[in-house]
Design brief:
Radius of gyration: 15 Å
Strand order of the largest sheet: 1-2
Distance between the termini: 30 Å
Shape: elongated
Structural class: mainly alpha
Order of helices and strands: HHHEEHHH
Largest sheet: 2 strands, antiparallel
Length: 121
């Protein structure tokens, strides 16, 4: 998995988990993604070093404003691409799985065309 894709996947996961849990820790990410603790630790440290997340003394993870903005953009791509693929006739599970991969590589101009097509401006 490329660094950017991995970074974006962790950000999106943190964003979605924070909507369900007010207090998020690395182990929550480990359990959700079923990844090794060491992998999640590296991912979390990378996000922290880039200023996307903060972590307090007890390990509680929060998104910074930059992290929240980037995570919202990633999730928006996921949601819109899924909607677009379903409108083409894909089943929801297949659309979700493909959107999860496509959201990391799609260019902004193509994404804007898809948004217009599905009526999500």
């Amino acid at each position: 998995m490329r660094t950017r894709e991995s970074e974006e996947m962790y950000l999106e996961t943190i964003y979605l988990l924070l909507q369900k849990k007010p207090s998020l820790h690395s182990m929550d990410i480990v359990e959700h993604l079923n990844f090794a603790k060491s992998s999640v630790s590296r991912g979390v440290n990378l996000l922290k070093s880039k200023g996307y997340i903060d972590m307090d003394g007890d390990g509680t993870i929060t998104l910074t404003s930059a992290g929240r903005s980037k995570a919202e953009d990633i999730y928006d791509k996921h949601r819109v691409i899924t909607q677009f693929l379903v409108s083409l006739g894909a089943d929801v599970e297949s659309a979700e799985n493909n959107a999860c991969r496509m959201e990391h590589i799609i260019s902004d101009d193509i994404f804007e065309l898809i948004k217009k097509k599905v009526g999500d401006r």
